[in-house]
Amino acid sequence: MFVTVLGSGGSEGVPVPYCNCKVCKSGDKRYRTSYLIETKERRILVEISPDFRKQQLNHNFSIDYLFISHEHYDHVGGLPDLRNIMLVAKIKIKPIKLLISKRLHKKLLHQPYIVREGIRYFYNTLVRHKKLLPMIMDYGKKYAFSDFQIQLFRNRHGRISCDGFLLESEGKSLVYLGDAGSLYQKTESLINDSCPDLLIANTPYFYSNKKITKGSRSTAKRLWITHHLGIDTISHLCAKKILLSHFSHRSGLTHEEIENLVSEYKNVIAAKDGMKIRV
Known about the structure:
Order of helices and strands: EEEHEHHEHHEEEEEHEEEHEHEE
Number of strands: 16
Structural class: alpha/beta
Low-confidence stretches: 216-224
Strand order of the largest sheet: 6-5-4-3-2-1-16
Largest sheet: 7 strands, mixed
Distance between the termini: 5 Å
Radius of gyration: 18 Å
Mean pLDDT: 92
Strand content: 25-35%
Shape: globular
């Protein structure tokens, strides 16, 4: 099983237009976060970011399954491009099976209808035309697809829920936490009991709570509750390897500085766009 990091940036990506902060001027480049998991028989796209079009053109990958963790734009913003590919350009690619919780499926179907061409419109259109085939999943139940098994779990991300999963294939296991800001006890037990070969966590600010710059032009520092887990909490979980990703320019950390920080941990890797990991 392999994981390709298609994007390792936070919701704003790196660099941010018009920003003159240290990170944005460092030369670091990060698309919004997305991963491609390849088992022996299938390809699973994890999150469909607003940079999906660029990511697909860069890596030329096919998709058998799509997983979406929650409704924030940086995780669903590629749905308009997917609709344009499949329904406007009428490119003949096979329908994509969507691995999604019942909760999130309903939320995307019935989002507030602010504008005609919003995420609700694109999601409904893809489902209605059977280009996305929702595989509605219950939390805590193990499902078998082709050559892998997957179990969804649910955690908190600020005021909303965020889904993650445990995926197993050919004796290897992978946990994806998504944008979890805190773990329910059931999730923590699942991770520690399975002790996955790879755990992927989105940590925009590296730490759970950190003094960061508020806005690109401000020099004032303040304690920011990030609504994401950080290395201080994730490092205590059982995993053979831990991949940290989803880095924000507001962390104030360049990739080189993040790599220096993770070097203190034997099993932690800092994600970079284009990185490929054998699980």
